[in-house]
Amino acid sequence: MRVHLLTSEDHRTFDTAVRTFRRIDGVDHGPFPRDPASVAFVATEGDRVMGWAWGTRQRHAAGYSQVQLYEIEVVEPARRRGAGRALPTAFLDLARREGHQKVWLLTDAHDTAAQALYRSTRGEPSHHDDLGFWWKLGAKAGPSGPEDRPDRP
Q1: Which of 137, 51, 62 is nearest to 97 (CA)?
Q2: Burial of 60 per CB tally in 10 Å (0-12, 13-18, 19+)
Q3: What is the CA radius of gyration of the chain?
Q4: 95-143 residue pLDDT tens
Q5: Collapsed DSSP state (helix, strand, coil) of residue 81
Q6: 117 with 84: CB under 8 angstroms?
Q7: Cα–Cα distance list, 26 to 16, 29, 52 (Å)
Q8: Cα dist from 111 to 62, 108, 115, 117, whole Å
Q9: Cα dist. 90→46, 55, 71, 78, 96 in Å?
Q10: Do residues 29 and 11 touch, judged by C-beta distance below 8 A?
Q11: Structure confidence at residue 89 (pLDDT)
Q12: What does DSSP assign to residue 10?
């Protein structure tokens, strides 16, 4: 299984992922991969999309940049084969390379498998949301003052 970052040239692959995981068809998904704030990875076997992770780059009001990991999903036959861990790992690696200070997401309180995955990639539960996880990235990830509390994504 191969995990790779989608670019604006990969609109067909992105369309396939949206149809597979969001079940949305007949919509032009081209603007998402062309938007510089967008991030999308897919896990593939040959030309089959087996998983995806997508989100957006953001500028926080406190002055730093962060990335929201909006969704991770893997098709049933590909589960327990490493894609679930490889997708957020690739997402986190990109965020580090780009110099973002945090990655954050929201998850369902009852989804213990997802929470275990996030913990296995060193995500920590948010202190202000029951369902939030976030990752500090790099040396500058600590709080810079009261307006940038460590318990805020």
Answers
A1: 137
A2: middle
A3: 16
A4: 999 999 999 988 888 889 888 889 989 888 877 666 667 778 875 544 4
A5: coil
A6: yes
A7: 11, 9, 20
A8: 31, 5, 6, 10
A9: 19, 12, 13, 17, 10
A10: yes
A11: 94
A12: G
Strands laid side by side in the 102-106 sheet: 2-5, 38-45, 48-59, 65-74, 102-106, 132-136, 124-125
112-120 and 83-98 helices cross at what angle (nearest 10)?
50
Residue 43 near residue 3, CB atoms below 8 Å: yes
Encoded tokens for 37:
């704030």
Look-up: residue for tokens 């995955």?
117
Q: Report the DSSP beta bridge partners of residue 89.
A: none
> pTM of this prediction?
0.80
Which tokens go with 46?
């040959």
Query: What does the chain come to in residues?
Result: 153
- Give bridge partners of residue 21 from the DSSP assignment: none
Measure the CA–CA gap between 48 and 45, rounded to whole angstroms: 5
Give me the mean pLDDT over the 81-102 stretch.
Answer: 93
